[in-house]
């Protein structure tokens, strides 16, 4: 099959959708399919290849919120030879243009719906107008809607009426990393995420505040933060304000090898997201694949899996005290923490390996083409 994927942006841009597209594309290539990614040229890159993935990068005129307006997208898609378009939401424009092209060329269009678009203020008025018009047409006319976890049919404001065309295709990990058998028990927490305005919903400030509660009981408590974005300075200032400079370390962006090393030396992974924009929580499965117990909030898409399979603690959002209590529980009971970590790795092995997930997706593609 020749498959075109149309995320708003792609590597070297970093984010959950970008990683989903990247991991899926590599799996499709391994199965002998051809994949082309067409996206906005942000950040600028001269490379037309990411590994064996062909990438077409288009100039954009401007951005509305987090959406690049690539005027040439329809023209470029019409030039492309493909069997199927796989597009992605919640960034409008690329999804609608992809659907138009698919209809013109009479090809299937698959949409992965990662989460709703909900904004506040003036952008909220525009997003509500969009949700009631263009989004309605998009969902009604794509051939298949993929979601990454089952609760999103219930959590989303818009998906309930399209149950007949919805299928669950989760996020995944490419492999189970080796476990450091010599790892010492410690009091090091880990957070991984993009630190920009569009990812403020990660709730990092509440995790930072929780360290002020934890430091008296756990003298060696430490929080390591991986990620970059314009909010880094704001989070650093909060760290200084709370006198936590010796407790919190900011790595910035790191490559995969360095990130794997950081995972190996930390004892608990925390994702304290505060709203439903965290439709799944890819970093949680990456942590569980490494046998780390996890702490997250009940708004995160993966929270029910974590609760049901006993892989960590699920707490209310926006509550530093709840984060501290969960950390206390895991640090005070190393046996429970190890068991949560083992359960998490087993869950990944059973359900969240990309090689298995991608085969299910290819079956969906083939069904649509038939």
Structure description:
The chain has 370 residues and is an alpha/beta fold. The protein has two domains: 2-172 and 353-369, Rossmann fold (3-Layer(aba) Sandwich); 188-351, Rossmann fold, CATH 3.40.50. It is 41% helix and 19% strand. The chain contains 14 helices and 16 strands. It has helices at 16-30, 73-79, 94-105, 121-132, 134-141, 152-155, 204-214, 232-241, 256-265, 282-289, 303-309, 320-332, 334-351, 354-369, and strands spanning 2-6, 34-40, 49-50, 53-58, 63-64, 67-68, 84-89, 109-113, 144-147, 166-168, 188-192, 222-226, 248-252, 268-271, 294-297, 312-315. The strands form three sheets. The protein has an eight-stranded mixed β-sheet, sandwiched between helices.
Detail the topology: elements first, then pairings.
Layout (H helix, E strand, L loop, with lengths): L1 E5 L9 H15 L3 E7 L8 E2 L2 E6 L4 E2 L2 E2 L4 H7 L4 E6 L4 H12 L3 E5 L7 H12 L1 H8 L2 E4 L4 H4 L10 E3 L19 E5 L11 H11 L7 E5 L5 H10 L6 E5 L3 H10 L2 E4 L10 H8 L4 E4 L5 H7 L2 E4 L4 H13 L1 H18 L2 H16 L1
Parallel strand pairs: 1-2, 1-7, 2-4, 7-8, 8-9, 9-10, 11-12, 11-14, 12-13, 14-15, 15-16
Antiparallel strand pairs: 3-4, 5-6
User: What's the CATH class label of the largest domain?
Assistant: Alpha Beta
Spans of at least 5 consecutive residues whose pLDDT stays below 50 are none
| Main sheet makeup | 8 strands, mixed
Quickly give the CATH architecture of the largest domain.
3-Layer(aba) Sandwich
């Amino acid at each position: 099959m020749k498959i075109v994927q149309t995320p708003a942006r792609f590597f070297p841009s970093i984010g959950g959708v970008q990683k989903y597209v990247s991991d899926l594309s590599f799996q499709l290539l391994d199965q002998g399919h051809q994949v082309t990614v067409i996206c906005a040229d942000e950040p600028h890159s001269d490379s037309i290849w990411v590994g064996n993935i062909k990438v077409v990068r288009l100039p954009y005129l401007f951005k509305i919120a987090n959406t690049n307006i690539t005027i040439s997208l329809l023209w470029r898609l019409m030039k492309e030879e493909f069997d199927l378009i796989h597009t992605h939401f919640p960034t409008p424009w690329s999804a609608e243009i992809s659907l138009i092209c698919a209809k013109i060329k009479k090809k299937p269009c698959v949409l992965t719906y990662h989460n709703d678009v909900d904004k506040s203020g003036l952008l909220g008025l525009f997003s509500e107008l969009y949700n009631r018009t263009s989004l309605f047409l998009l969902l009604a006319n794509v051939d298949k809607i993929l979601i990454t976890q089952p609760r999103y049919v219930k959590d989303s404001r818009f998906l309930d009426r399209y149950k007949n065309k919805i299928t669950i295709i989760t996020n995944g990990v490419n492999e189970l990393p080796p476990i450091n058998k010599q790892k010492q028990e410690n009091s090091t927490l880990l957070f991984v995420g993009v630190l920009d305005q569009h990812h403020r919903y990660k709730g990092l400030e509440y995790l930072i505040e929780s360290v002020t509660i934890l430091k008296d009981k756990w003298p060696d408590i430490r929080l390591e933060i991986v990620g970059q974005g314009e909010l880094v300075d704001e989070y650093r200032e909060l760290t200084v304000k709370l006198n936590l400079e010796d407790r919190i370390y900011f790595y910035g962006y790191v490559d995969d090898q360095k990130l794997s090393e950081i995972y190996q030396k930390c004892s608990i992974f925390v994702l304290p997201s505060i709203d439903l924009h965290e439709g799944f929580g890819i970093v949680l499965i990456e942590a569980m694949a490494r046998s780390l117990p996890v702490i997250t909030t009940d708004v995160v898409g993966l929270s029910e899996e974590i609760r049901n399979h006993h892989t960590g603690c699920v707490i209310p959002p926006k509550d530093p005290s709840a984060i501290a209590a969960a950390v206390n529980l895991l640090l005070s009971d190393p046996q429970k923490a190890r068991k949560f970590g083992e359960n998490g790795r087993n869950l990944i092995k059973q359900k969240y390996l990309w090689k298995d997930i991608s085969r299910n997706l290819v079956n969906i593609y083939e069904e649509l083409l038939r």
